[in-house]
Amino acid sequence: MTRPLAVVTGATAGIGRVFCDRLAERGHDLLLVARDVARLEATAGELRARHGVAARVHAADLSDEAATGALAESLGTEAVDVLVNNAGFGTTGTLARTDPAAQQRMVRVHCLAPLRLVQAVLPGMVARRRGAIVNVASVASFVTVPGTVTYSAAKAFLRVLSEGLAAEVAGTGVRVQALCPGFTRTEFHQRMGAGGTGIPDWAWLSADDVVAASLRALDRGGPVVVVPDLRYRAMVSLFRHLPMRMLTWVETRVPMRRART
Q1: Known active-site residue 155
Q2: Long-range contacts: 42-47, Cβ < 8 Å, 24+?
Q3: Confidence (pLDDT) at 28
Q4: Domains in the chain, please, with CATH?
């Protein structure tokens, strides 16, 4: 019997890597997408050995439109059961002083690439009347402060895209989720130069817990927006009710201001 296929971007580390393990445990074959071919092959080998599933790799830089287009074209020919748009990166610094090219890459990776991949797999999911799309956003999608403007805006795009898409496909059997974790222990913060200084231990989530929350919500059929951990859900509720001026004042003064989810 053919196993369902799950596609995970940013598959070699952190949240993406855990998604690969958990989906393989559930009997999915995998297509792993990331930039580093060696890490992709190593990760795929581990998954095959551990779970006995098929694990293929597709090396692609999703900030490159041609590479994203080639991946999307390939996915359009596959019966994709689960798509996890997890690839991403962050930068720090005010918009006036950061590299414009880096900001544009962020928009391509966080916004344009997920949109393209969703459009590639969605028609098949609707036709088969089943499927799941998880767009990994962030609690940063609910608030933006100096130094993370583009990142927060990009994550907000993913969250709003997911909410709207969920309404569009209601009744088709396709589930859509915006996963909005808080600070999560992955390579993400090291790459963006914010290794955790000033972030209290209680604020950190594990990638395992984040993925578990996502899959529980998918199994239950909702909600569309998933914020793992009660503390972060309380923070998001506060974010949604505070005036922007007050929210910005608070955010620029808390110890966590030098790192982002």
Answers
A1: yes
A2: 42/12, 43/11, 43/12, 43/17, 47/20, 47/21
A3: 98
A4: 5-258 (3.40.50.720)
